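Q: Please design a sequence for this.
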């Protein structure tokens, strides 16, 4: 998970479906042990510095939850070059369109950008942080077992 603003999307959700939970956030106010006491790994660094420290393989999913292009865009560009099975990004359709245009301007292909699940989660009905977290985890499970659920 990139970004600790949504602390309800915690290690408990990940552990319940057999995933370990690594949180990356350079913002100490959001990504810290007090807010996330149960994460398996906490890295307080920018994604472009932190992601190379982690093995990102076919069993890895990445959720970008900051709403901040300075944090999300470098992370997305990095993970698009890896075989992770899931990349999800928080934000509205309008936010994702802006993100898509920035990524295209940075030379990322439409084919790679199409790997991003955005808006993240199964649907627009989730309102509370807990519901958003559940929606994200449900989408991760669906994609993990072969459903595109975009």
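A: Design:
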């Amino acid at each position: 998970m990139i970004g600790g603003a949504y602390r309800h999307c915690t290690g408990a959700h990940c552990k319940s479906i057999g995933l370990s939970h690594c949180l990356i956030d350079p913002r100490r106010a959001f990504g810290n042990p007090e807010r996330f006491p149960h994460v398996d790994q906490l890295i307080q660094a920018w994604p472009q510095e932190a992601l190379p420290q982690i093995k990102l393989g076919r069993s890895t999913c990445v959720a970008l939850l900051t709403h901040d292009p300075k944090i999300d865009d470098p992370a997305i560009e990095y993970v698009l070059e890896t075989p992770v099975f899931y990349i999800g990004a928080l934000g509205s359709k309008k936010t994702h369109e802006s993100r898509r245009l920035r990524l295209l301007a940075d030379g990322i292909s439409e084919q790679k950008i199409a790997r991003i699940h955005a808006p993240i989660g199964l649907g627009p009905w989730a309102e509370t942080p807990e519901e958003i977290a559940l929606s994200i985890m449900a989408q991760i499970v669906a994609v993990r077992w072969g459903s595109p659920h975009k």
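Q: Thanks. Anything notable?
A: Residues 103 and 109 are 8 Å apart (CA to CA). The chain has a mean pLDDT of 88.
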